[in-house]
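Entry for magnesium ion complex. Fields follow.
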Amino acid sequence: MNARRLWIALATLLHREVGRFLRIWMQTLLPPVITMGIYFVVFGSLLGPRIQRIDGFSYIEFIVPGLVMMSVITNSFSNVASSFFNARFQRSVEELQVAPVPDWIMVAGYVGGGMLRGILVGFLVLLVSLAFHPVRFHNLAIVMAFLVLTSLVFALAGFSNALIARRFDDISIVPTFILTPLTYFGGVFYSISLLPPIWRALSRLNPILYMVNGFRFGFLGASDIPTWIGLVTLMGLAGALVALNLLLLARGVGLRT
Amino acid sequence: MNTALSIRNLSKTYSGGLEALRGVDLDVEEGDFYALLGPNGAGKSTLIGILTNLVRPTAGEIHVFGVDARAHPERARALMGVVPQEFNFNVFEKTLEILVFQAGLYGIPRTEALPRAQELLERLGLGDPMNQIAQHLSGGMKRRLMVARALVNSPRLLILDEPTAGVDIELRRGLWEILTELNQKGTTIILTTHYLEEAEKLCRNLAIIDHGKILEQGPIQDLVRRLEVQTFVLDLAAATTLEQLPSGFQIRQIDPNRLEIDVPEGLTLNQVFAALEARGVEVISLRNKSNRLEELFLHLVGRGRL
Ligand SMILES: Nc1ncnc2c1ncn2[C@@H]1O[C@H](COP(=O)(O)OP(=O)(O)OP(=O)(O)O)[C@@H](O)[C@H]1O
Ligand SMILES: [Mg+2]
């Protein structure tokens, strides 16, 4: 396959993935926007004024970047996990296997689709937050870097999950037992400087902490942790997950008996 | 003549230990219409699965039009189209989208794929706008949708795993016409089917596989000719008694108006008729008891009388 053919194959897959989440926007785009809107109302408008300023920022200002990041994480992950697992379940993934499409195109197509959904939802949530507080960008390049890398990492993780899952239940295990706790304890709602030392140390083992803080730094210019650590962590995770997915595919895990 | 498909020593042992293929060798010439026959569980779909990247072979070599499928899997796959045994499209998609999507995966841009997909759908009787959502198609229509999908990249080798299962007679004939026409235009076709008349009607060469081994392969006409005995059913003009039947033949009376006779190689029907004539038995019509390929098949897979 020459480059043009590969590009058409990738574009075809992306076209379908994006078409899918746009078509069912009531299940894919609306719920996260509503949930985050509720967070903004409860924490930002109702509780926020009673909470001390953190690093000199009002509470709503402080939590918006974290909540945007949270939506990016869950939506990138679940888009790939459910779309790809469904393709395996319905066996329509065989259309890709039978075609002269190399494994990396399959990964790129699904992961690209998941990233686009994560980024789109993140953007919509940010848009909703404007109703509560104007947004400021300390460094747009850092915002973009964290946005793209985070959606990449979690879309890749969703792909691995869908590949090893045997039942539909298996693709909700990671969001429920791993993503949700790690995000809530990842400094979305508080600065880890408020925690007792032991919890502060434990929090530093949570990769999501670095993403949330780095992303927040891009908006506010304040962070608990140096930004470069977040970027390096994300790139490391992305590299490892790309390798993992390609290895699983080469071994035929989940797709070839 | 070029070889469209060459398989050497192909084996597959599934993870549970079941040996689905045991050293299969198979050659299909370019332009051939080839039948792959075998009872349930013989290993046909496993073989096709390996060819189309759905099943990992345990050992063996495959060349598709000379392309080594292990060294250049994508180049080999680009030459093939497959109609799988089981439905494997997203039922929530529109038929046209299913075809355009598949075309895109072969590097055919959307603008080119759309008219082509439309044409294929019409050719397979799925052009009606009522038939847009794959989920709403009948079983036979779903199968034709998969045929259309397999043709979207104009494959040089078309592989069909029981394409006519559950398709009514009229549509089956329609499909036969399409396949014959494709074959005449140069597409090499491999077909599995449990309808042996279908294989005999369409195909030139065949392989019979059972328990993962090829039992026999070659031109259908030659193989059928090797059958040593044929059984005919004769309808008689009038009731006959057992005493009337000539001796020296393997004749059985089914009812007073019907006889069954085994005709071994070396005996001609003229001789049979002469003997019956001499006894005053008048035959109105005659037919093979079963399709000849069917007899060969049953014989080879060990369920025949021979
Ligand atoms: N995924 C699998 N895991 C384990 N065994 C399998 C698997 N797929 C098929 N088999 C076994 O391999 C053998 C060959 O199956 P296969 O589907 O190739 O047969 P077939 O010739 O296509 O039969 P049919 O005419 O019923 O479609 C069977 O015994 C089957 O049970
Ligand atoms: Mg089969």
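NOTE: Residues 186 and 206 of chain A are 7 Å apart (CA to CA).
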